[in-house]
Amino acid sequence: MAKMASAAETSSVSTIPATICKDLPLSFSRWISSLFGITEISESFPQNYNCKDSYSDLFCHLLKVESVQIGRVSCLFSVLPFVTNYYNGLHGGAVAAIAERVAIACARTVVPEDKQLFVGELSVSYLSAATQNEDLVVDGSVLRSGRNLTVVAIEFKTKKSGKLVYTARATFYHMPPAKL
């Protein structure tokens, strides 16, 4: 079995108290340490979003609804600096949050309000990067809706070229209304 050493013993780059295998080459440990050091949001959040329960407001105000039809929702989204990553691309967490929000709106066009929904699965494919200040069209459509679940597909395309940059699929489970 490989001996373990602390990060401080293995690499002078990392100051994080972690355990790193001694068999791991020093160059790998330095690369991993630098990777974790640079993968952070590039700018801080605006002050009014730096509080508990601001998640919904943060992303709802960034989405502009273009159209709502039964089983379809289309929105516009601008990639602003506070939702970009170190490389000035749309942060992956922001992609997932927007996909979830559009999927919920889309599912609600076919599922009655008396049924509660909860996300059972959300998968996102990152095909390309949406750069800072780029406008995206986010289209959601219901693929299947039944008595107990609804499946929604979401596509993120650049407004300028129509290039597909992200896709997502959400599965919602329905909670039946309580009978009292």
UniProtKB/TrEMBL annotation:
Transmembrane segments: none annotated. Residues 90-163 form the Thioesterase domain. One of its GO terms (molecular function) is fatty acyl-CoA hydrolase activity. Keywords: Hydrolase. Gene3D superfamilies: Hotdog Thioesterase (3.10.129.10). The keyword Chaperone does not apply. NCBIfam families: unchar_dom_1. Belongs to the thioesterase PaaI family. PANTHER family: OS07G0462700 PROTEIN (PTHR21660:SF12), THIOESTERASE SUPERFAMILY MEMBER-RELATED (PTHR21660). This is Thioesterase domain-containing protein. It comes from Jatropha curcas (Barbados nut).
